[in-house]
Write a structure and sequence with these properties.
Layout: H1 3-23, H2 28-52, H3 57-84, H4 89-120
Helix pairs in contact: 1-2, 1-4, 2-3, 3-4
Length: about 120
């Protein structure tokens, strides 16, 4: 997968999460979980973009680690939203599956990056 395709997939994921959050009934729990999942999904996309402009290998790796953490956090808060809003189970399942696929790509990339760094040492 090219960097541009991945960049677009992460952006689309963040937008899809935001669209789900807009559908939730307003209450304090949905507001808090919705805020968290929106921030973490958009942060994963933003940090991926930042990684592509990294100033060093260490900076690149650090940004990728943030993408990994933010994607995992997004999946967690989607699970919490589903627990509170079972009527959105289908949409959450689709977004969780997509989040896990993106996370698997990032984790594989991190393993490759770490392996390359270890060979340089």
């Amino acid at each position: 997968m090219t960097k541009e395709i991945m960049k677009q997939k992460l952006k689309d994921y963040a937008l899809s999460v935001a669209r789900l959050v807009l559908k939730l009934n307003y209450n304090i729990v949905n507001k808090n979980y919705g805020d968290q999942v929106t921030r973490s999904a958009s942060s994963s996309a933003a940090n991926y973009r930042a990684a592509l402009r990294a100033k060093s290998d260490a900076d690149f790796l650090n940004k990728f680690k943030i993408v990994e953490e933010e994607l995992d956090e997004s999946i967690f808060f989607l699970e919490m939203i589903e627990e509170i809003n079972p009527e959105f189970s289908k949409q959450v399942l689709i977004l969780s599956k997509e989040g896990n696929e993106l996370l698997a790509i990032i984790v594989a990339s991190l393993k490759t990056l770490r392996s390359k760094q270890n060979r340089k040492l």
